[in-house]
Give the backbone structure.
Amino acid sequence: MIITLRHLYYMSLVARTGSFRSAAEAAGVSQPVISDQIAAIESHYGVKLFERRQAGARPSTLGWDYIQSADRILCEFERMEERVKSGAEGHYGTLSVGYYKSLANGALRAAFRSMIRYYPDVRLLPVVAGLDDLERVVRNGALDLAVLATEAGGYDDLRLLPLWSDRVVAALPEHHPLTERDHLYWTDLLGEKFLFSRHDPGPDLADMLTAKLASPGRRPEIDIMEVNREDVLNFVGIGAGVSLQCESAIVPGIGVAFREVREGTMVSRVGYSACWREDNDNPALNVFLEILRNGSRHELDG
């Protein structure tokens, strides 16, 4: 005989209600069904699990031990069902998200906060890496989603969701002549020596600079440094050159002045996009994408 959850459920009902008749009413079946199921279990083990009395039924000493174990199994099964249903809706499970270190604030931070606040049973697995590494691990399926500073396009094998943008600012030594201006244009930066970090989004900003200022026979002077963004700004502060940074990189008190860079009347910006594999079937990914699409609407509502 195979003991099923139904057997355990009937056993628990009889113990809670105190009689076969009341258990049958609670289960919506006839009393003989309950009686036969309990008798079959007792026959299987060769012991009496209930003491039958005219006033009802109560578990024997062995019966109590058995029913306590049965209740634990039923509760665990119920929790398992809840987890499966919750997981199918994206409310339970794990979600791996890759991003640049410099994105661990602002809009992405708000999206993480919304996910943690409203979907606490989803375990977030953050991964900080560079552009090339993030693209690779998303493509091979080791990462659910990556947020990259890149234009939407050129990723035929990935889905893209354009997200937010960050203002581009020029980082200048605080006594540089250009600090006298409220904002700058790209042409104002001609002839300057530029410092960028090898780490993202430095290469993206260096490419943007080249696209704006390069011309036949002339390219901007660019030094790609094997240091992080903070060290680049420190070198700017001691007069080693200037740099381009995203607005989120602004740090006061290091001898660096920041000025907005414009193209005509438009503020220059670098856009961020989320990318993921078309065949990614993680339900939690859809939940996080919805938060990103709505600009962390949950957070704003809270």
Q: What stands out?
A: The chain has ten helices and 13 strands. The longest strand covers residues 158-173. The chain has three domains: 5-88, 93-163+271-301, 164-270.
